[in-house]
Design brief:
The chain is mostly helical and about 375 residues long. The N and C termini lie far apart (about 65 Å). The radius of gyration is 25 Å and the shape is elongated. Helix 1 packs antiparallel against helix 6, helix 5 packs antiparallel against helix 6 and helix 10 runs antiparallel to helix 11. A two-stranded antiparallel ribbon has the order 1-2. It holds the Pfam family 7tm_6. It is a multi-pass membrane protein.
């Protein structure tokens, strides 16, 4: 049997490694609780150190809000995991498994892409001050240290300490982003499975070359089987609706902060990057960081758009379900379902802002508007 949690296992394993969430694949250990508390203290300490660099400070605050959402509502997150592993969401044939495996592979690649970006940013973040110092330029560190960092080797130790601390935080941050995006991507996959079930509602009867009208109207056993399939599809859809609404509710505050902070962070990063030499290490580091921030919000809006699109196509799949082969009583049932499906599933932030590509473009426009105001001489 295919493991439905496979699409999320790398994400939650990573969150457990960096101390951002509890262990969900095994028994919770007391040592891990202390480890998560230590990571939380380090994150708060990092916030105090980065006051001099506003765009990094806002990113750190964004991380803390997401940590709160994951840990304060950990029981609700576990309830969502239980739903993911429930019978309604499990694959029932090879096509279902293929869809879920494709989604798991896509989410794994997305997580690997972000981890690679974090690794590159870390190397550049550490390498820039070291190279700048080697060239004889004066370097200012953004953190406070109780010792003199102007000479070697204390300077190198301080740079590596800041780089590792920020990279660990970024590692956990992008993993939380990918996890939330994976929740929405899983909803999209479940909608695809639901659509497949409707499109192949009577396939097994067609294979037997049966008389549909006769079987549906007069054969009690086949009528009950078909009724159970329709009821199962409706329960599946209602479970998907609950799942999306629960994800939206759990991470509601985090997503509100995400939208406002990302717009300002992109603006501040642009403001800083335009003054840097084009081929400098710092410019490349900031450019990679800017790309991460822009893609960070994009994955939410991208998969939110996919969820809405798949939801809008459910009625089309019902129409393609060979409904002409069914009796009028079953046609009426499908018609009632189609009326329910007209209300599309659209993930939102603060119950107002839709997670869509249009919203993403609006955020970029707002960021550029703020940048033009700040950049006026």
């Amino acid at each position: 049997m295919y493991d439905t949690f496979q699409a999320f296992r790398p994400h939650f394993n990573t969150l457990a490694r960096v101390g951002y969430f509890k262990i969900v694949s095994g028994k919770e250990k007391k040592f891990h609780i202390y480890y998560r508390l230590f990571v939380w203290i380090c994150a708060i300490n990092c916030t105090k150190q980065l006051v001099g660099t506003l765009f990094l400070l806002l990113t750190t605050l964004n991380t803390l809000v997401k940590q709160l959402s994951f840990n304060v509502r950990s029981q609700r997150v576990e309830n969502v995991i239980d739903v993911i592993n429930s019978a309604l969401f499990k694959p029932r044939n090879a096509c279902h498994e293929n869809m879920m495996q494709a989604n798991a592979l896509s989410m794994s690649r997305l997580l690997m892409f972000y981890h690679t970006a974090v690794f590159i940013c870390t190397l550049l973040f550490i390498g820039y001050p070291l190279i700048d110092s080697a060239l004889g330029n004066e370097v200012y560190l953004t953190g406070y240290f109780p010792f003199d960092t102007s000479h070697s080797p204390t300077f190198e130790i301080a740079v590596i300490y800041l780089g590792v601390l920020i990279s660990l935080q970024a590692y956990g941050h992008v993993t939380m982003d990918c996890t939330i995006a994976a929740f929405y991507a899983y909803a999209k996959t479940q909608l695809q499975i639901l659509r497949y079930n409707f499109e192949h509602l009577v396939d097994e009867y067609q294979a037997k070359e049966a008389n549909f009208k006769y079987f549906v109207d007069d054969d009690t056993e086949l009528r009950q089987i078909l009724s159970k399939k329709i009821v199962s599809c409706m329960k599946h859809y209602e479970q998907i609706v609950w799942y999306v609404e629960e994800i939206e509710s759990i991470f509601n505050e985090a997503m509100i902060v995400q939208f406002f902070i990302v717009a300002w962070v992109i603006c501040m990063t642009l403001y800083k990057i335009v003054e840097l030499p084009l081929l400098s290490v710092e410019f490349i580091s900031m450019a990679v960081y800017l790309g991460c921030m822009m893609s960070q919000l994009f994955i939410y809006c991208y998969y939110g758009t996919h969820v809405k699109s798949e939801s809008e196509l459910v009625n089309d799949s019902v129409y393609q379900s060979e409904w002409l082969s069914l009796s009028p009583s079953f046609r009426r049932r499908l018609l009632v379902l189609m009326e329910r499906f007209k209300r599309t599933i659209e993930p939102r932030t603060a119950r107002v802002i839709p997670l869509s590509v249009d919203t993403y473009i609006s955020v970029l426009r707002s960021s550029y508007a703020l940048f033009t105001i700040l950049n006026r001489k």
